[in-house]
Design a protein that fits this description.
The chain is of the alpha/beta class and 261 residues long. It has one domain (55-260). The protein has seven helices and seven strands. It has helices spanning 2-54, 81-89, 91-117, 144-147, 151-174, 206-217, 227-260, and strands at residues 61-64, 74-79, 120-129, 135-143, 187-191, 198-202, 222-225. The strands form two sheets. Strands 1-2-3-4-7 form a five-stranded mixed sheet. Strand 5 (187-191) and strand 6 (198-202) form a beta hairpin. The longest helix is centred in the first third of the chain and has 53 residues, at 2-54. It starts with a helix and ends with a helix.
């Protein structure tokens, strides 16, 4: 009789273990499925979010990664994936970083415009914003005009560039007290009360001055920009946009006055 009880108990215990194992297995699979779904949704949201940011810099290739591109051609902006997570959870961080991304677009267009005007070619331009939101950029320029010069003329041109750089620095130091602490472009728009003519005065564009100094100081055409540099360019771009908006507003006021007369 005791033997029969033992056998029944053993059978019951084995059945309980099997059922428990099956339940745990099902629960584990459900957990894995839920985790997979969450990760999939999170990945999709991040991808959609990154695609939205890419629209802020249409002139460069937007990427998500842990380092600046090492390519020797093209233009790119790589943003650290951990920074993207911070941006999605912190509105202030998001606003600041979106301004920086827009600043990269402004810098890219300005550098291209200045290069063409001075006979240079931008070989490549790669930017990177790290996990903490700090900006890094390396840009390679090529002086096409210099390549056609003889060694003697090239050396003379180099010396002239160095002298120009020194003069630029001296002028910048002299005007430092007159410039704003943000080192940005400022425009003063005045309306002539006699004929309604708009008079516009501009202080030196600090973004252009910054890139000019970097370009003149470059020995091999390599230019590096840091977080402080890009923020100077951002402020200059904002001030430029504000100045244009103010000019349009002043012109509109003048037009209305003319109509009333």
């Amino acid at each position: 009789m005791a033997m029969e009880i033992t056998n029944n108990y053993s059978s019951y215990a084995a059945q309980s273990v099997a059922e428990s194992s099956t339940a745990n297995s099902a629960k584990k699979k459900e957990t894995e499925k839920t985790t997979e779904t969450v990760e999939s949704n999170k990945g999709k949201r991040t991808t959609d979010y990154a695609n939205g940011l890419a629209k802020l810099v249409p002139s460069v290739d937007f990427k998500v990664g842990n380092a600046c591109s090492s390519a020797k051609n093209g233009k790119s902006l790589t943003v650290n994936p951990k920074l993207l997570e911070k941006m999605q959870n912190d509105p202030e961080k998001e606003k600041d970083m979106k301004d920086m991304i827009k600043g990269v677009e402004s810098m890219s267009k300005l550098a291209e415009s200045m290069a063409k005007a001075s006979g240079w070619t931008i070989v490549y331009q790669h930017s990177y914003i790290d996990e903490n939101g700090n900006y890094h950029c390396r840009m390679q320029g090529r002086n096409d005009g210099m390549l056609k010069l003889s060694d003697k003329l090239r050396e003379e041109r180099k010396k002239n560039s160095e002298k120009l750089l020194e003069k630029t620095k001296e002028k910048a130091a002299e005007k430092e007290k007159e410039l704003s602490e943000t080192l940005e472009e400022k425009k003063e728009v005045k309306e002539d009360s006699a004929d309604g003519k708009i008079e516009e005065k501009s202080t030196p564009n600090k973004a252009e001055q910054l890139l000019n100094e970097k370009l003149a100081a470059s020995k091999d055409g390599m230019i590096y920009l840091n977080d402080t540099d890009i923020r100077t360019i951002i402020e200059a771009a904002k001030e430029d946009n504000a100045g244009r908006a103010n000019s349009k507003q002043q012109v509109g006021v003048g037009a209305n006055l003319d109509l009333k007369v």
